[in-house]
Backbone:
């Protein structure tokens, strides 16, 4: 019961963060769930909850979703997830996390530098690359947000539309990641009472409601900084996880 209560508290906080910035749900949940239910089961549970939360949020942000961009990003992300899943299953985890984390941090640094010198980039090729980076990041290290953040900065994507458009993307990539992880590892969801999943729905909705109130109180500039900060945190978390694994800590 203590574990379930802890998960419900995390769900409220993660849902608030997701409603305000469009991202950060899995990033917040994953480290805590890994401790609560074990690393492998934690990943599977994170994937399942990361499908449920954005799915519930889509209706609230529907009018702001940019389906034109998603029409390119989503197929690219989903297509690369199975082969990246094979890479993950056949590569030592520690070095893989280090490589992914380093690439994420470098890519964000370059993107922010380009933004400072007022470089604007967009187009189908960049959208495809963003999808590949998102899908690969989700499967390899659970960090799909940095690729999307880099694109949003370069393309000057309106932050409200960006946050809304992430919801169907996260729902689809989480569902696919769940299938890929199950196929390669055979891991299944941890065992909870039957009422656990129905209870998650109102808890997430409460977080969404609170996040909607918070979103009205913060500026576009602050939300943009939070999005970039979360993406950077994801890269650092991946890098630190890899270093600890290699060092046997």
Residues:
């Amino acid at each position: 019961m203590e574990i379930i209560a802890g998960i419900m508290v995390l769900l409220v906080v993660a849902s608030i963060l997701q409603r305000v910035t469009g991202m950060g749900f899995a990033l917040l949940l994953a480290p805590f769930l890994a401790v609560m239910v074990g690393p492998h089961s934690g990943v599977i549970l994170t994937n399942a909850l990361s499908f449920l939360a954005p799915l519930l949020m889509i209706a609230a942000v529907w009018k702001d979703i940019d389906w034109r961009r998603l029409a390119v990003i989503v197929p690219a992300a989903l297509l690369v997830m199975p082969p990246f899943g094979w890479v993950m299953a056949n590569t030592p985890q520690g070095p893989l996390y280090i490589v992914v984390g380093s690439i994420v941090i470098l890519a964000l640094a370059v993107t922010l530098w380009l933004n400072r010198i007022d470089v604007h980039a967009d187009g189908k090729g960049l959208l495809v690359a963003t999808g590949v980076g998102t899908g690969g990041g989700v499967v390899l290290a659970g960090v799909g947000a940095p690729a999307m953040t880099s694109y949003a900065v370069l393309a000057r994507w309106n932050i409200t539309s960006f946050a809304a458009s992430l919801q169907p993307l996260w729902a689809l990539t989480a569902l696919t990641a769940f299938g890929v992880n199950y196929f390669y590892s055979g891991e299944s969801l941890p065992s909870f009472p039957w009422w656990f999943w129905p209870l998650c729905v109102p808890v997430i909705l409460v977080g969404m409601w609170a996040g909607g109130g918070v979103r009205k109180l913060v500026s576009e500039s602050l939300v943009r900084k939070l999005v970039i900060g979360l993406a950077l945190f994801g890269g650092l978390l991946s890098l630190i996880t890899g270093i600890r694994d290699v060092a046997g800590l």
Remarks:
- The chain has a mean pLDDT of 82.
- The chain is about 85% helix and 0% strand.
